[in-house]
Amino acid sequence: MLYKCIKKEEWDKTLEQLLLSYTIFASTENEYGLDYELIKPADIKKISYNKPKPATSLKSFFLPVKENVTTEKFDDKPRIILGIPNCDVEGLGILDEIYLDREYNDIFYRKRRENTILIASDCFSVQEHCHCLSYNIKPYSEKKADLAVINLNGTIVLRILSQKGEEFIKTIPEIQIKEADEYISAIEKEHLATETLLAKSNTGLPDYEKTGELINGAKKNIWEKYSARCVSCGACTSICPTCSCFLLIDKPGFEKVKQMDACQYPGFERVAGGEDALFELHNRFRNRYMCKYIWKPEKFNSLTCTGCGRCIEACIGKISKNEIFMELAK
Questions:
Q1: Cα–Cα distance for residue pair 195/139, rounded to 1 Å
Q2: Are 178 and 231 contained in the same domain?
Q3: Residue 326, SS3?
Q4: Number of domains into which the chain is organized
Q5: How far out from the chain centre does Cα 33 lie?
Q6: How far is 98 from 322, CA to CA, in rounded Å?
Q7: Same domain for 150 and 19
Q8: pLDDT tens, 126-166?
Q9: pTM of the model
Q10: Residue 21: CA atoms inside 13 Å, Cβ hemisphere, count?
């Protein structure tokens, strides 16, 4: 895998120059936490590197909460998204399979994907609910993104992950190829430390395949027990990097609006005749896990949970899916 490096001060100058031709979003940290922000020259020094994880999932850049699919105009200016954790990068796998389907591809999603350079950020620490490694997802990107960025004591190291990333690097003359083993070994040491933390903090959590088996065999009482605290707000699905359900709403003048939907909302499966297979709360609650661990794996190749833990953090009812799975595994 090819690495290139640049001094941090030169990288900051490069980003300032790139702002002339790109819209840049990057993860920045404030008193409320870490999240993506639209970057202006004055914000470059605020960019956070190698910390998990932005509160907003990468999905929001490609699947807006609401968009008019008959009058929406494309923004032709290319964009860079900088500081993406690998759980979000991997989450694009299932979205690409759905929205870039050969026969039914979404032109809005495709345009945004083609118009975006993805720069991932290796995670050198973990948060309480991070569990990507339990699903065999590394805390650093080796594919799907275009580049990965590492900040090592004032030196920015870039790992090239795609042809698009390689072509992008060629437009930055200040970056020089660096093959020094000291950088690679230091990065690998950080990777190992992060993986060790993830393994230690998720002892007893079943892997992705085993979780599907446990869910498929779970009795009604387990869903009733945990759904008792659910308020059907849909926060878990909205924040999830892989959930992708939407409504297509007809408007006057033959306009159509695509709006994010969630299987946890009452009436999600209600049909015109009034029947609703998910009327009972525990059935809606179970439906989400069946979709992620049973039904979609039967149809798609990509994982539909990447272990980011955002659904646990966003839940108003303080429901932890990992607690459910560990109870089922006992």
A1: 7
A2: no
A3: helix
A4: 2
A5: 17
A6: 26
A7: yes
A8: 999 999 999 999 999 999 999 999 999 889 999 999 999 99
A9: 0.93
A10: 8
